[in-house]
Amino acid sequence: MAFMRFFIKSYGCQMNLYDSRRMADALACAGYETSADLENADVVILNTCSIRDRVDEKVFSDLGRLRVIMEKSSKDILIVVAGCMAQLRSKDILRRAPQVNAILGPQNIHKIAVVIDDLIKNRAMDIIVTMSMDTGGKFQSLFANACGRESVSEYLTIQEGCNNCCTYCIVPFTRGREFSRSVSDILEEARNLVASGVREIMLLGQNVNSYSGGNFDKQKFSLAHLLFELANINGLKRLRYITSHPKYVDQDIARAHREIEILAPSLHLPAQSGSNSILKEMNRGYTQDEYLRCIDLLRSYRPDIAFSSDFIVGFPGETDWDFEQTLKLAKKVRYAQAYSFKFSPRPGTAAAQMDNQIPEKIKSERLLILQKLLNDQQTEFNKSFEGSQLNVLFTKEGKHKKQIVGRSEYSQSVSVYANTTFVGDMARVRITEVASHSLVGMLE
Ligand code: SAH
Ligand code: SF4
Ligand code: F3S
Q1: Quick one: CATH architecture of 389-443?
Q2: What value does the mean pLDDT of the chain take?
Q3: Which of 8, 9, 13 to mutate to test the pocket of ligand 3 (most atoms within 8 A of CB)?
Q4: Cβ(242) to ligand 3 under 6 A?
Q5: CB 206 within 8 A of CB 172
Q6: Dihedral angle over CA of 85, 86, 90, 96, nearest 10
Q7: DSSP strand E in 189-336: where?
Q8: pLDDT digits (tens, 9 = 90+) for 348-366
Q9: Centre of ligand 2 from the C-alpha of residue 243, in Å
């Protein structure tokens, strides 16, 4: 077993990256070794996503590629499909990819080492399928497995699952009901991360700002409370959190942005649409005005806060007028960065069954227009820093010799030429060159 090497490929969001990291921890603790590439691994784990249809198809094409590798090398590779798509489409996976040995839903990833041990002990055994929705149980076991990490910046899931029912979204079906981890567990994990050299923590949750964790004395803690607690950890240089829902933005979080020095002045606040009737059909729970009030509230406490967002174009029934409202909203906010997607009907969601679906061609046209606007806004935002200084936390070496790369307080990627010993440090950088997606600077 000591010579078994594993490779994990992650698809989708940051939460999957966190889960993959924890699976790697669990396997390392159980004596498995990592493989630098998929081709040389004995165990391949695909940690899948199902947010849009293209992501699903990518997993099937990777499974096909694995089959070819196995045939060519006549090597037995153990294949595990984990994550959101595993939860939703286990039957399709077994039908289309019979070479798969185990299927693990996202709340079952802590079982990975036991599952692989079982598969190794009995190669002829049936396929293992495990789909429990016990999120609390998962975190208890993951915590016991922690092996320590070395990066400068790490994710930390504090809340998982979702009690909202946005009509387009598959996540409530894959990750289950909302679950918040306890404050003491989160603080302990954060302290361990910092002790192992981590300098930036990004807190994760599907609705991270609806976090409601139990405390030592049974008091309920909000995200703002938790941020104030985390900010006391010695050696931690920066805190971020993602993804926030506009419905739960409140004064406490705005105050946290003014008072906590290490809390980055940037916020990902997905709007999805600017049209009130589409927002209602999406079941988002806010209007354009209410969304803009959140932006104003946060800017009144922290004027330089940089906003990013997600948008969906071509939601069923979206008219030209509705789409115009999305453009108007983006122009009012002036985003530092934003993602936009064509609506993708997900089987089993309410929006997939709506009868006024938008033709692909119109979706593509609208996407191009919105992406151009958002790209221009990003370039304009970045250009505004030419010649000025930013606080950069250096996270890794760059592609070129003696180049190091990091992120500014506004989440921009910044590179400088400097000694690699600066990785892990935060420094003032004067910006000398600006491209739309990255900045170049000099250490002050
Ligand atoms: N919990 C977060 C988002 C999770 S999914 C929130 O509430 O905002 C990440 C992004 O994927 C969403 O913000 C949305 O823009 C996009 N998305 C989700 N379902 C989609 C679908 N069916 N079609 C297209 N984009 C979708
Ligand atoms: Fe999906 Fe909406 Fe929940 Fe976000 S809030 S995960 S978009 S259902
Ligand atoms: Fe994808 Fe699941 Fe994340 S569907 S976006 S991996 S929560």
Answers
A1: Beta Barrel (2.40)
A2: 93
A3: 13
A4: no
A5: no
A6: 70
A7: 200-204, 213-214, 220-221, 238-242, 266-268, 306-313
A8: 999 999 999 999 999 999 9
A9: 10
**Which residue's C-alpha comes closest to atom 12 of ligand 1?**
310
72-to-52, 58, 81, 155, 169 alpha-carbon distances in Å: 32, 21, 21, 37, 39
pLDDT digits (tens, 9 = 90+) for 386-398: 999 999 999 999 9
Long-range contacts of 349-356 (CB under 8 A, 24+ apart): 349/167, 349/168, 349/169, 349/170, 349/173, 350/165, 350/167, 350/283, 351/167, 351/168, 351/281, 351/282, 351/315, 351/316, 352/168, 354/167, 354/281, 354/316, 354/317, 355/316, 356/316, 356/317
Q: Which two tokens stand for residue 152?
A: 């400068």
Written out in words, the top-level CATH class of the domain with range 136-383 is alpha beta
For residue 248, give both structure tokens.
Answer: 């739960």
- Domain boundaries of the chain, sorted by first residue: 5-132, 136-383, 389-443
Residue nearest atom 7 in ligand 3 by C-alpha distance: 171
- Determine contact, residues 411/336, Cβ cutoff 8 Å: yes
Test site for ligand 1: of 310, 337, 343, most ligand atoms within 8 A of the Cβ: 310
Considering the domain delimited by 5-132, tell me its CATH architecture.
3-Layer(aba) Sandwich (3.40)
Q: For residue 284, which atom of ligand 2 is closest to its CA?
A: 2
* E strand or H helix that includes residue 216: none
pTM: 0.96
On the CB side of 116, CA atoms within 13 Å amount to 29
